[in-house]
């Protein structure tokens, strides 16, 4: 097998999913950090079919998307498996995984909304990243990129309010999957790797961590990713957080 190359954006939660799954398979890879927004053109130029991270070059093939990467990794290296072999169990894991791929967008919108208001926490999310320029400089000059990312991801007040309002129910759903044994088993599966980084990204917000960390979803996220870089001090209007306090 030639050297695998994984294209990521620092702090990107589905990128973390891909890194975790490659690690789980014991497949060594080179991590290549891209700047948000600029990543889209870079990935196109590298002839990836889409324009999002994670994107993986593996033995000449280009595999894009966290769900596609999970399947390709299981195909080229079945052990340890990312999906259960029992068809019914597999269907449940796939259902949770697919839901998780949609749920991703909520912490993504929260993040860009917050960074648009204040870019200073951004540096903490770039820990360990190699962007080609110092992280401090990237953050200092990153205003237009952050504004573009917030716009691209529709990180509006309205959407962020809706994301925060649905978070308690989203966490209930994850807790239920854990209770049912679909997630959080001894051997982590593709749903764990898909969903835990989203929960972990939400936990980087001081506003949200207390409402998440002691729930099964929060405990699982911390188990899957003991250290996830980034921390954002209180940023959301308190009225938007009321549902989380209940
Ligand atoms: N849901 C897909 C797409 C992931 C996605 O949207 N990634 C974001 C980063 S978290 C991205 O590449 N955004 C482009 C940008 O920020 O310019 C997956 O899980 O692979």
What does this structure look like?
The chain has 246 residues and is of the alpha+beta class. It is built from 13 helices and four strands. It has a four-stranded mixed β-sheet, covered by helices on one side. Helix 4 runs parallel beside helix 10 (190-202), helix 5 (105-117) packs antiparallel against helix 9 (157-179) and helix 10 crosses helix 12 (216-224). The protein is globular. The model has no long low-confidence stretch (mean pLDDT 96). Glutathione binds at residues 9, 12-14, 36-37, 39-40, 52-54, 65-66, 101, 104, 108, 149.
Overview features:
single chain; 246 residues; binds glutathione; four-stranded mixed β-sheet; 7% strand; alpha+beta; globular
Based on Cα principal axes, name the global outline: globular
Ligand roster: glutathione
Q: How many runs of DSSP E, i.e. beta strands?
A: 4
User: The biggest beta sheet, please?
Assistant: 4 strands, mixed
Strand content: 5-15%
- The structure class reads alpha+beta
Give the SSE order as H and E letters: EHEHEEHHHHHHHHHHH
Average pLDDT figure: 96
Strand order of the largest sheet: 2-1-3-4
Put simply, the count of helices is 13
Cα distance, first to last residue?
Answer: 52 Å
Low-confidence stretches: none
Portion of residues within helices: 40-55%
Radius of gyration: 18 Å
List the helices and strands and how they pair.
Elements: E1 4-8, H1 13-25, E2 29-33, H2 38-45, E3 55-58, E4 61-64, H3 66-76, H4 87-103, H5 105-117, H6 122-125, H7 135-140, H8 143-152, H9 157-179, H10 190-202, H11 209-212, H12 216-224, H13 242-245
Parallel strand pairs: 1-2
Antiparallel strand pairs: 1-3, 3-4
Helix pairs in contact: 1-3, 1-10, 4-10, 5-8, 5-9, 5-10, 10-12
This protein binds glutathione.
């Amino acid at each position: 097998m030639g050297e695998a190359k994984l294209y990521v954006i620092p702090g990107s939660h589905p990128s973390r999913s891909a890194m975790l799954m490659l690690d789980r398979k014991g497949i060594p890879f080179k991590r290549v950090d891209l700047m948000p927004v600029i990543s889209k053109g870079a990935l196109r130029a590298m002839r990836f079919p889409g324009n999002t991270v994670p994107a993986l070059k593996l033995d000449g093939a280009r595999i894009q998307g966290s769900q596609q990467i999970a399947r390709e990794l299981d195909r080229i290296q079945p052990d340890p498996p990312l999906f259960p072999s029992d068809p019914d169990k597999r269907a449940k894991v796939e259902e949770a995984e697919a839901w998780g791929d949609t749920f991703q967008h909520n912490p993504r919108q929260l993040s860009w909304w917050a960074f648009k208001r204040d870019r200073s926490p951004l540096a903490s999310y770039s820990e360990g990243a190699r962007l080609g320029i110092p992280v401090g400089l990237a953050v200092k000059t990153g205003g237009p990129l952050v504004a573009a990312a917030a716009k691209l991801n529709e990180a509006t007040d309205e959407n962020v309010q809706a994301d925060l309002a649905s978070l308690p129910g989203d966490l209930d759903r994850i807790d239920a999957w854990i209770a049912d044994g679909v997630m959080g088993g001894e051997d982590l599966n593709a749903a764990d790797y898909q969903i835990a980084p989203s929960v972990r990204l939400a936990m980087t917000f001081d506003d949200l961590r207390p409402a998440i960390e002691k729930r099964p979803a929060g405990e699982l996220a911390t188990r899957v990713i003991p250290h996830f870089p980034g921390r954002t001090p209180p940023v959301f209007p308190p009225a938007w957080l009321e549902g989380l306090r209940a």
